[in-house]
Design a protein that fits this description.
This protein is of the alpha/beta class.
Length: 475
């Protein structure tokens, strides 16, 4: 016991004085170390590493070109030369400028976007676009399962590899822990390049449960890009009885924003594969064939190596900028204090704030923490819904029928700080209306959480909520 006390004391000093953490996370770790002295320090070794580094992902070969484009666009904003086709979007130039300054996210306005909310439709579109690939296919997914969906995709990849198409597959070690080495070997023997993000050690031992690459990106020939919530597995087609129908949101981009997705993939690939594909100019050619694209887009990303939580800050800024309505869909709703307060203030200011979460958990711990925050929203007159037609995995924020921020990041502090994520900020009434219409259609398949129904929770559920909420910053 004396040894455990000393170990806990050392870790406590380390957490309080030597690591940059927010107070909520500090208290969560201290409580774990105090109440679970044996398990607490083991969890800290696995989950508590502070991973902030000075930019893991480097892009030196094209950094000059990107910075030149950023500076040029900043100058256009400062001199009031940047014109958006929809005058109502002019008030969002401050957000465009923030993304330029903080994330070097260039605004591209010649894009067309297709929205997918059904897994079969999304993967049919992906398979079709891959089948038409002439030069390269880049796939990056958090989860890939070796089931019938992956077999469909693999069949196309093998065929295109035989045709001379350059193919790269990047996967997260934790999310793909069910795959076997032989599954990847089969691809490599066919000439397909494969890279693993934060590989396991000693076989399947995962020392980094946090800091996972949660991004889902597909880029084909630099002309087509996919980003959103769907991973690769049969459950995303609604074929898992546990979850039923899988409601998610994914977009297909055709236009100049695809180059931003290509750069994001390359940064992750170079780190995982110890490669440098920035030297291959053909992978980053700007598509010029869409002359009348309707959707201005910025691709933003964040992760534990970033200096700021850019996706979280976009969510917060958009909430503050809303004048009429805020629609949020997320499987995990664990906001930090600033976002929670912003939503409460918006609702109490007469803005129509709606939050939709699943009716069932895929991760019970996170679900109960989510439900505790829903209670606060309901008290503040936020309209909260539980999606009853299966499982809701969509990660989407729409405001005022004008701007959408969507992609891979959940509305929770783990996505904000601990995972590598990528989102698209879409400044388009056309696309935002599609997503808001989808939200309203989902409302017909959902239950409204009322003050009365929330107060009828059992004592056990209340305990689960508070316990999970307390430890949500670290688990």
């Amino acid at each position: 016991m004396d040894h455990l006390f000393i170990i806990n004391l050392v870790f406590s000093i380390l957490i309080i004085f030597f690591q940059r953490r927010d107070p909520t996370t500090v208290w969560a770790w201290l409580l774990l170390l105090y109440f679970l002295p044996g398990l607490g320090f083991i969890l800290y070794l696995v989950l508590g590493q502070n991973f902030h580094k000075d930019r893991m992902f480097k892009m030196k070969e094209i950094e000059g070109e990107i910075k030149h484009a950023v500076r040029r666009q900043e100058e256009s904003i400062y001199r009031r030369k940047l014109k958006l086709r929809d005058p109502e979007l002019e008030r969002f130039k401050s957000l465009i400028l923030y993304n330029l300054n903080e994330g070097e996210a260039v605004l591209t306005d010649n894009n067309d976007i297709r929205v997918y909310t059904d897994g079969r439709e999304k993967f049919d579109a992906l398979l079709s676009e891959m089948d038409h690939a002439r030069n390269y296919i880049h796939l990056q997914y958090y989860i890939i399962r070796n089931d019938e969906l992956w077999q469909e995709i693999e069949e196309v990849l093998l065929r295109k590899a035989r045709q001379g198409v350059e193919i790269r597959v990047l996967f997260d070690s934790m999310g793909c822990r069910g795959m076997k080495n032989s599954d990847w070997d089969r691809l490599e023997k066919a000439g397909i390049q494969v890279a693993e993000f934060f590989p396991a050690v000693l076989g399947k031992l995962q020392l980094r449960v946090n800091y996972r690459n949660h991004r889902k990106i597909a880029v084909i020939d630099g002309r087509i890009g996919f980003v959103g919530g769907f991973n690769i597995g049969r459950e995303y087609l609604g074929k898992d009885e546990k979850f039923g129908y899988w409601r998610d949101t994914h977009i297909c981009i055709e236009g100049a924003a695809v180059t931003s997705l290509a750069v994001r993939f390359a940064l992750d690939w170079n780190y995982a594969a110890r490669d440098n594909i920035f030297l291959e100019d053909h992978l980053f050619e700007l598509p010029t064939y869409i002359r009348n694209g309707r959707d201005p887009v910025q691709i933003i990303s964040s992760g534990p190596d970033s200096h700021s939580q850019e996706i979280r800050n976009n969510y917060l800024r958009l909430i503050h900028m809303a004048r009429k309505n805020i629609f949020i869909q997320t499987p995990y709703f664990i906001p930090d204090d600033d976002i929670r307060d912003a939503l409460i203030i918006a609702a109490k200011s007469g803005i129509d704030v709606r939050v939709m979460i699943p009716c069932k958990p895929d991760h019970p711990f996170v679900y109960w923490a989510t439900y505790s925050y829903i209670g606060e929203m309901v008290e503040a007159c936020v309209r909260c819904f539980t999606y009853d037609n299966g499982f809701l995995h969509s990660k989407c924020l729409c405001i005022d029928g004008l701007v959408t921020c969507m992609g891979t990041a959940n509305m929770d502090i783990r996505s904000f700080a601990l995972n590598f994520e990528v989102n698209a900020v879409i400044y388009s009434a056309r696309t935002t209306k599609q997503l808001e219409d989808a939200f309203e259609n989902d409302m017909t398949k959902s239950s409204l959480v009322t003050k009365k129904s929330y107060e009828q929770r059992t004592l056990l559920i209340r305990f689960k909520e508070q316990f999970c909420r307390l430890l949500s910053p670290v688990l």
